[in-house]
């Protein structure tokens, strides 16, 4: 019997609504397989907790989560609390504390989904972004002197370590070999302007690429990547980028494949010392929160990635196949994809299909 203890952190906005559907799918899988069981420990952290306590999570909160096998996360963000407080108070400390340096963000144009880009058919866009997830431009290193005065000084420092940079680039190459599609890794850089961090990034990319002679490589400036993701996204296979660059290009890739509501994300601790975390790429979407109309498929796909990570590839395959079938058949799709289904109807549909695929 495979028995998993999962931490559930629904968070803010639409987070609790989409996470509930992810749990529904996990429960359905367990109900169909006597050898599979999930136990959940839910943590009510986020902006409501902040309003009560002045913190997004308890000071020692992550110690409790660290005993879990994996984390299913919803979203952070609140219209009344500055974004740097919500993000720096929960999501980013968790990625760092659990050394989740490898973030994997697939972007696939599913059948039944219309890309905003002309002439793209199902499967034309099929790429995976590897995001460095614990350092780079997101490092909490900097300071502010003489605030509010004419001689105010603000410094925000990018941090690139050899360990972190090599780890994400190697993970991208390893995935490219395993995936065996176009055998191309694209490094996203800005070394023409950032002569320290990004020149170092380029050097590490070149050094790691020497270990993978069977993989083609290219190194493109981030502005060129933004352009190419719109004009020929089908050219990409595996991409590797720093924390901030990958955050931005994964939103472009997500909308190119039809909706932010479909983009899933895995935050992996490659050494397996700490739990890895699985979430949608989208945030709290508070403009639609509480209405039961958010698309849960990003979170459900993230559940599929979690199952794969936990060593349940057949369950992972069924979740992904059910997501694909639900989009292809379009019996229940949410407003972002031109439908009118509720979040719960989409979750129920995936549960039904998980029993068939
Ligand atoms: N489920 C993802 C989420 O809540 N994202 C909020 C956000 O602002 N994330 C920024 C980031 O991941 O860099």
Number of helices: 11
Q: Would you give the CATH topology of the largest domain? A: Isopropylmalate Dehydrogenase
Strand order of the largest sheet: 2-1-3-12-11-4-5-10-8-9
CATH C-level class of the largest domain is Alpha Beta
Q: How would you explain this protein's 3D organization?
A:
Helix content is 39%, strand content 20%. The protein has 357 residues and is an alpha/beta fold. The chain has two domains: 1-100 and 267-357, 3-Layer(aba) Sandwich (Isopropylmalate Dehydrogenase); 126-256, Isopropylmalate Dehydrogenase (3-Layer(aba) Sandwich). The strands form two sheets. It has a ten-stranded mixed beta sheet, sandwiched between helices. Helix 5 (162-179) crosses helix 6, helix 9 (297-309) packs antiparallel against helix 10 and helix 10 packs across helix 11 (343-354). The model has no long low-confidence stretch (mean pLDDT 97). The structure holds glycylglycylglycine (GGG). Glycylglycylglycine (GGG) is lined by residues 75-77, 87, 247, 279-280, 283.
List the helices and strands and how they pair.
Elements: E1 2-11, H1 15-31, E2 36-42, H2 47-53, H3 61-65, E3 70-75, H4 83-97, E4 102-108, E5 126-132, E6 142-145, E7 153-156, H5 162-179, E8 184-189, H6 197-209, E9 216-221, H7 222-231, E10 238-241, H8 243-256, E11 264-268, E12 276-280, H9 297-309, H10 313-329, H11 343-354
Parallel strand pairs: 1-2, 1-3, 3-12, 5-10, 8-9, 8-10
Antiparallel strand pairs: 4-5, 4-11, 6-7, 11-12
Helix pairs in contact: 1-9, 1-11, 5-6, 7-8, 9-10, 10-11
This protein binds glycylglycylglycine (GGG).
Glycylglycylglycine (GGG) is lined by residues 75-77, 87, 247, 279-280, 283.
